[in-house]
Amino acid sequence: MKNLFTTLSIAAVFLFAVAAHGQVYQYDDNWSEQGFTLKEARTNQTVLEYSLEEFSLQNIDIKGEAMKKVALPGHFLPNDEGAPDLPGRAVTLLSQTMLM
């Protein structure tokens, strides 16, 4: 009986984890590591590249309505109630003159 309870508990945790995780989309042909990469920096131009390795769509319940939430590893930026809750990331660029 104890083994049955343990097996059912492990199965329930596994099924909950799979259901909560949702759909995972992975990209194997990235330009570079996930996130921002400085490709070029000149006095008149800065080129940033953003690469994405994976993201997931998680199933969430909002006021009884089933919805999807976009989740990116390392991104966390909840929005105000009623506004889209999309992940975001900020980057600050400083010029050499600002550092002096």
Task: Give the topology.
Elements: H1 2-21, E1 23-26, E2 35-41, E3 46-51, E4 54-62, E5 65-71, H2 96-99
Antiparallel strand pairs: 1-4, 2-3, 4-5
The H/E string reads HEEEEEH
> What count of helical segments does DSSP give?
2
Count of folded domains: 1
- Distance between the first and last residues' Cα: 71 Å
Q: Tally of extended strands?
A: 5
Radius of gyration: 21 Å
Largest sheet: 3 strands, antiparallel
What portion of residues is helical? 10-25%
Strand order of the largest sheet: 1-4-5
Strand content: 25-35%
Mean pLDDT: 74
Which stretches are poorly predicted, pLDDT < 50 over at least 5 residues? 11-19
Looking at the structure, what is the overall shape?
elongated
Helices and strands: which structural class? alpha+beta
Explain what this protein looks like in three dimensions.
The structure is a single chain. This protein is α+β, with helices and mostly antiparallel strands. It has one domain. The chain contains 2 helices and 5 strands, in the order αβββββα. The strands form 2 sheets. Strands 1-4-5 form a 3-stranded antiparallel sheet. A hairpin with a 4-residue loop joins β2 and β3. The radius of gyration is 21 Å and the shape is elongated.
